[in-house]
Specification:
- By secondary structure, the protein is α+β, with helices and mostly antiparallel strands.
- The protein has a single domain, classed as Arc Repressor Mutant, subunit A (Orthogonal Bundle), CATH 1.10.10.2910.
- It is built from 7 helices and 5 strands, in the order ααβββαββαααα.
- The chain has a 3-stranded mixed beta sheet, with helices on one face. A two-stranded antiparallel sheet has the order 4-5.
- A hairpin with a 6-residue loop joins strand 2 and strand 3.
- Helix 3 packs across helix 4.
- It binds zinc ion.
- The site of zinc ion has 5 residues, from helix 3 and helix 4.
């Protein structure tokens, strides 16, 4: 996969779904793609996805004990796996989900672009990470990384 591919895929998705406002409505995005979101209590894992038996429909499962921002990122991250890796990513070893660091990095990049789209953020010229977090409904930690990527110091 090309280094920019995850970002390009996220941008395409925003465009295809005609999303123009922040924060990006992750429930709406998943609905539009026919993907269901299920909230469940889980330990040591933020989220994962499964496919139905016919391998036609995805279900994203998100931990409900973490904050809303983290849930949003998890949904976007799992969606990244589905969109970028066509679901061929998580495999279960004795109940543990194992995934490669490269695929994880791709999914994070996709999630970052989807939740904090460059094209939207650019319009502001400059934003403090706190502002990015607020506008995009992401964690401050995630926003700090994004601000750096945008060349906005830090
Ligand atoms: Zn992952």
């Amino acid at each position: 996969m090309q280094p920019m591919q995850p970002r390009i895929e996220a941008r395409k998705l925003l465009q295809n779904l005609n999303i123009r406002n922040l924060p990006v409505n992750m429930t709406g995005v998943c609905n539009a793609l026919g993907i269901d979101i299920f909230y469940d209590s889980m330990v040591g894992l933020d989220g994962y996805f499964i496919q139905n038996q016919e391998k036609r429909k995805y279900l994203i499962i998100v931990g409900d004990s973490v904050g809303l921002c983290r849930q949003r990122f998890s949904i976007a991250h799992e969606l990244g796996h589905i969109r970028l890796h066509h679901g061929r990513v998580g495999f279960s070893v004795a109940g543990k989900v194992t995934r490669s660091p490269q695929l994880e990095a791709n999914a994070n990049m996709f999630a970052s672009e989807l939740l904090m789209p460059k094209i939207f953020l650019q319009r502001f010229g400059y934003l403090e990470p706190e502002k990015i977090a607020d506008i995009c409904q992401v964690s401050l930690e995630t926003a700090v990384i994004r601000a750096r990527e945008m060349g906005w110091g830090g």
